[in-house]
Amino acid sequence: MMVDKRIHELQESLRGRLFCPDDEGYDNVRKVFNGMIDKRPDLIVRCAGLADVIAAVNFAREANLLVAVRGGGHGVTGNAVCDGGLVIDLSAMKSVHVDPANQTARAEGGATWGDFDHETQAFGMATTGGIVPTTGIAGLTLGGGIGYLNRKYGLSCDNLRSADVVTAGGQLLKASASENEDLFWALRGGGGNFGVVTSFEFQIHPVRSVLAGEIIYPLDRAKAVLRFFRDWSIAVPDEVRADATLISGPNGPVLDIKVCYCGTIEEGEKVLQPLRSLCPPIIDTVAPVPYKTVQNFLTAVFQPGLLHYWKAGFVREFSDDAIEAIVDFFAGAVPKPFAAIAIEHLGGAISRVGPHDTAFNHRDAQHSLLVLRMWQDPAESEDNIDWARRCYRTAEPFLENSAYVNYLGDEGEAKVRAAYGDNYARLVAIKNKYDPTNFFRLNQNIEPVPEFHGSARQT
Fold first, then answer.
1. pLDDT digits (tens, 9 = 90+) for 265-299
2. Comparing C-alpha atoms, which of 160, 185, 142, 153 is closest to residue 357?
């Protein structure tokens, strides 16, 4: 009865809505992007504003409940929801305010990149954001933030100017280069370990039309094209991002290179011409298009509710042997759609930030590799996961012993440590300071160590 009374008091304190398992709509609001995730929280607080977030944090702490925080709900691990416990759901907090004079935009923690682009593109502006519009700005930015503009403007976290954070103690803090600097450092790549970020302020940039599209090659030309792509992609100017992906799609297996040139169209035509003229493609759709078109290239592919399994790493050796091994595996074991091995294009502006300037430390990487498998029938899960794991094992000898935290699955503490490298000790010190009880632990978790004597100071 006391529990029922406390839940009633929580609901009465909210401007948003509280969902319990027997409530209409509960099954819908507990769903996340990855259809493999089927968790049943005891309570879901769909927050209408900052006061609701503080109330939810205080309630969960006082009741000693497990807490999940949902922004876009796009993380493949499903950490945005939990079994039992309480979900702090920010998905109704989606406002985006653009200040074109100062070239900044402030977005609430439940906004998606589709929401963000819609508002910023009205002013011909953008910042590096996720390549699927339904991706939340929060999770992507807190883990680093790879996107089509990353070589020209850096990662999403490199464009973060300030953040409002509700801590485990229910306190609201502002983190920026001049306030709570240690927390600001940690938020730029350290994930959701340090609090609920309710608002993000980004630097935005003039971005209107770009030269972009797909160049699709037959699979039997994949090795030759990838060898050219490797050298060309390292040498091109920062305005280019080009991702090369072996795809098993509805029309069979192909090599698909998606390009985005953010600069003058005339110069972009010159820069992309060597790739486009390398050999006759099946399809070449490269043309001047609005930036929002680029951001929707993968919308039809990444439909919510499909079952997902991913494994990823940063490329250490993009050698001829690596290309041979990856293409031979893919060609010899092509699964039903949809499967992909994506080589993502990094470098450029990303590499001009020091590895210790933010929690994201993978500044020298020129490419990352993502093995991605999606399917619909749960009965096929074992076979699909097995394919993805075998594929990753084939690529693993050519990868760094580290990872992009936004692509990590449930792979254990050692992998999280490897993902942060020598930034990990500083992250532990900051975790000790802001969340010593590990209240926020449903994430790629950085566990507090009370006896740890590292420094959380700015370096």
1. 999 999 999 999 999 999 999 999 999 999 999 98
2. 185
